[in-house]
Amino acid sequence: MSRIGVLVRLVVGGIAGLVVGAIAAVNVAIAFGTDRGYEASIGELFTENPLVGVVVVAVLVAGPIAGAIVALRIRPPPSGLLPR
Q1: pLDDT digits over 20-35, tens only?
Q2: Contact 36/44 with Cβ under 8 angstroms?
Q3: Is the Cα dihedral 59, 60, 65, 69 positive or negative?
């Protein structure tokens, strides 16, 4: 695989991981965070429940990293199967 292909996979995987991580972090904040739910800031989460704040930050950081790793591990289809 070319360097451009690897770079594209990293960027696309990172963006996809960011989206998935943001959705997961919002769901954690709604389920276990403050009574304000998705409107709560990171600071408010740490003030009311530090463990939830740490989990939310960890999910936000891990999302793009995991997305990039998954994108690199997916095998491209054989070149004979792609339509022209």
Answers
A1: 999 999 999 888 888 8
A2: yes
A3: positive
